[in-house]
Known about the structure:
Elements (H helix, E strand, L loop, with lengths): L5 H7 L10 H5 L4 E7 L4 H15 L3 E7 L5 H11 L5 E5 L3 H6 L9 H7 L2 H6 L1 E2 L2 E2 L2 E6 L2 E5 L12 H14 L4 E4 L5 H4 L26 H14 L12 H9 L3 E6 L4 H6 L4 E4 L14 E9 L6 H10 L3 H11 L14 H8 L3 E2 L6 H16 L4 H13 L2
Parallel strand pairs: 1-2, 1-3, 8-9, 11-12
Antiparallel strand pairs: 3-11, 4-5, 6-11, 7-9, 7-10
Amino acid sequence: MKKSLVPVLFALIPALVLAGCSKKAAKNEGPITLKVWESDKGPDEFIQKAGEAYTKTHPNVTIEYVHVELGDAAGQIALDGPAGVGPDLFAAPHDKLGELVNSGHVAATVNPDDVKGKVLGACAQALTYNGTMYGYPSSAETYALFYNKDLISESDLPKTWEDLAAFSKKFNAANPGKYGFVMDIGSAYYTIVFTTANGNRLFGASGTDTTDTKINSADSIKGMQFFQKTLRPALNVPAADLSTSMADSAFSSGNAAMHITGPWNIKPFVDAGINFGVAALPSLPGDTKPCASFSGTRAMFVSAYSEHQEAAADFAAFLLTPEMQKLRFDITGAMPAVNVKVDSPYIPGFLNQLDYAFPMPSIPQMGAFWDAMGNASKNIWDGADVKKELDAANAAILGL
């Protein structure tokens, strides 16, 4: 199988320089087309423009964009890769790394030490699995507290979740039809923050403990009890009605003072004319620092099935140059994966939160985490027994 040839192939590949200076190696090949999977609504435009820039210095290489959403790529590569109709390069979130590596779908990073030296430390860590780096980070992300400056002043921003709940109750009473805060309470991506007190982390401190999720630990139970008993009264809406689209719509229409979301919403909220700012998340009960959030790394992975792995790796490395990272930010609003300055009043808030974030685990068990914890969060929000729900989530994730 092709995947068994990957170590041999990479032993023969010469070192590539990240700044796109490996033109000689790429030019030694005849005309080739690299098929790249990415999402639409911004990432598509970036890949197309980056492809045009790359082709100017690599005239034998054409970049072909194909629309495959970020969340669908890991499943689709398993079908299209072995069938010979897959991409040369594809975007996927780093939490799919273990699944992709164990299934033999991705090639290791070329020149990993060089890549690690250029990208943010959190991104390098996120793309390292069993001591080997895979992929090339295209952007970093976490979520933070968006606030509508016309509805709440910066000086009134809550520093704790208790303060946020208290503000929201008063705001809701004084502003019928509006909300003090909104968030998708059925998304484990966000609700994980309530389980992180005292350093409690999903799958343990290293994110690799496959025997204990820590999702039903004493700290998790206490945090989700707070979620149920204190936050629920401050946002008295059933879980079924608190989707991401509902929360986004409430904030973008000026009907919510605060919202927990990520940098992908900067441009939509700017376009909607909202006068907003971004700050770190409130602290959990008994703490004084922002609560820990998931950090994510969006990465470009070289397919193990590609017949042009060297060129694909070179284009992926080209996407890490400061010029391309700035271009991606200008188009998508995504935080750069390298240490490059961008002109934005919103990014500092995310960078502040990133100091308290931890990479989503990338072990295969993450595949079961999302639905299990998401369903538990919805049920807890609607009044279910917290311990029973978290015990059930732990069992579902571990296949017990």
